[in-house]
Recover the amino acids of this structure.
């Protein structure tokens, strides 16, 4: 296949993703790549109609039936009573089938696909089996050492550890993981973004200091930086996280690597609000998602911000 595809898994049926799709596609209809939505067409149409949106969709049960300049949909069965309802485990089989069918399509030629998923409820869908969609897709594609990147063209961030309790972070960071993560991100930027990135790496401890005899900075982070420099990676640090995200610092770098989730996600969301997307590097395909959850509290209110979805789809169509 010569054409490229953006495959969109609708995700949690009782989240705001349908609303965001309605807001986006009502204003944006021209794409270089084929769009394939995977999910329940009847529920999607019903929710959109209730909110005042409409998407013309081409039904397909085979990728050969997908059409350029059309929003294609692969329908997944889902029994529901209400258009808008509470998130429960009753959606789990539907979500599993949606991801399964989407992943089956990508196996034809993973390089031809950008995989975008709507948010899911980690509590109800994963039931403590997976930390998040990043880890779920890694398992389902037999991938290893996946890397989370929260991307904005001005500045991106990547946590070495993702959705784990803070008390476990120090036990989960090591030299090999830091080196592997940064090398994968470096390759992603050079091959996909077409840019040689400049990395900044943060310390783990406040001010990169500790009362312990030897700190994680000395044992793990500084040796990792030295190793990466030998591999011709443009990287500096470790920097203290409390002062790093000042404008005079962030203007110098493309990617900030932190040791744990909120160390880097809190400042990036403060800086860019929803103008950032979650990219998983290290899967057979590029996976992206809007940088927010199902937001069920806003379900049916037609007040959700589509900025992150817009950023995600425009990134997908460009790259």
């Amino acid at each position: 296949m010569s054409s490229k595809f953006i495959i969109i898994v609708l995700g949690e049926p009782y989240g705001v993703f349908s609303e965001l799709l309605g807001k986006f596609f009502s204003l944006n209809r021209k794409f270089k790549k084929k769009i394939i939505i995977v999910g329940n067409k009847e529920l999607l149409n019903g929710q959109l109609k209730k909110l005042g949106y409409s998407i013309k969709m081409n039904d397909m049960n085979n990728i050969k039936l997908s059409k350029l300049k059309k929003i294609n949909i692969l329908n997944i069965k889902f029994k529901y009573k209400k258009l808008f309802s509470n998130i429960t485990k009753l959606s789990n089989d539907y979500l599993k089938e949606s991801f399964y069918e989407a992943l089956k399509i990508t196996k034809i030629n993973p390089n031809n696909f950008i995989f975008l998923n709507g948010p899911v409820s980690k509590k109800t869908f994963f039931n403590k089996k997976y930390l998040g969609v990043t880890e779920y897709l890694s398992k389902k594609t037999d991938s290893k050492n996946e890397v989370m990147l929260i991307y904005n063209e001005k500045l991106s961030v990547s946590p070495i550890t993702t959705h784990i309790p803070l008390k476990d972070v120090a036990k989960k960071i090591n030299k090999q993981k830091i080196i592997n993560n940064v090398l994968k991100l470096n390759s992603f930027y050079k091959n996909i973004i077409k840019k040689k990135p400049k990395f900044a790496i943060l310390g783990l401890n406040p001010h990169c200091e500790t009362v312990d005899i030897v700190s994680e900075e000395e044992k793990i982070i500084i040796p990792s930086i030295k190793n990466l420099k030998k591999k011709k990676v443009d990287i500096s640090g470790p920097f203290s996280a409390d002062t790093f995200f000042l404008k005079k610092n962030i203007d110098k770098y493309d990617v900030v690597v932190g040791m744990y989730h909120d160390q880097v996600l809190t400042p990036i969301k403060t800086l860019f609000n929803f103008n950032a997307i979650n990219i998983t590097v290290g899967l057979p395909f590029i996976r992206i998602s809007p940088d927010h959850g199902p937001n069920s509290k806003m379900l049916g209110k037609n007040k959700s911000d589509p900025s992150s979805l817009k950023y995600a789809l425009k990134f997908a169509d460009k790259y």
